[in-house]
Amino acid sequence: MPALRFAPSAALALGLLAASSAFAADNTPDGPVKDAYAATVKTLAASGEPPWRPPHRDKLMSKGLAALFARDDLYQDEAGEIGHVGADPFLNGQDGEVKNLKVTVTEKPANGRALVSAAFRSFKQPVTVRFRMVEEGGGWRIDDIVNRFEGKDYSVRDELSKPYDCGSFMNKPCKR
């Protein structure tokens, strides 16, 4: 019988350890970005969802950015069209790979905000993606993703905030 008493204690300890490690990345601004790229690498290997979709979205992103991505997903489902972000914002392209990833806090945390950059090589080309981070819900979250294309910065949050032609969230059904 002592073994039975130990088993629940061990299971509880393992559960608490797993839960604490799942949220450990939230303690630093670069943690959610590292977790997002771990999900991206799995997605590229065809074994998982991208960071902007469940189950990652709510853990990695601010409530506001997560809601914008959810709205974009809903539009895509209802309209059968590409949403406002037609490429993978973590790759800064429609296709890619993540080689030699380096995630760096480029603006130290101040007033609950920070800036993090992810630099890597994709198809032998250097890529840098910037992340505006915010402290929310007891940890750090991605609040915006900034990509650079043809010398111009593009805020994913700004793109996702644009109006849609239709959608249940606009009380205007989409015609498929």
End-to-end C-alpha gap:
63 Å
Q: Per DSSP, what share of the residues sits in E-state strands of 2 or more residues?
A: 25-35%
In N-to-C order, the SSE pattern is HHHHEEEEEH
Compute the number of strand runs.
5
Strand ordering within the main sheet: 1-2-3-4-5
CATH topology category name: Nuclear Transport Factor 2, Chain: A
Rounded to an integer in angstroms, the radius of gyration calculated over CA atoms is 19 Å
How many domains comprise the coordinates?
A: 1
Largest sheet: 5 strands, antiparallel
> Given this structure, which CATH class is correct?
Alpha Beta
Sheet/helix structural class: alpha+beta
Q: Estimate percent helicity.
A: 25-40%
Domain DUF3828: 32-147
Keywords: Signal
Signal peptide: 1-24
Protein name: DUF3828 domain-containing protein
Task: Please give a quick description of this structure.
The chain has 176 residues and is an alpha+beta fold. It is 36% helix and 28% strand. It has one domain: Nuclear Transport Factor 2, Chain: A.
Describe the protein in words.
The protein has 176 residues and is an alpha+beta fold. It has a single domain, classed as Nuclear Transport Factor 2, Chain: A. Strands 1-2-3-4-5 form a 5-stranded antiparallel beta sheet. The radius of gyration is 19 Å and the shape is globular. The N terminus is likely disordered.
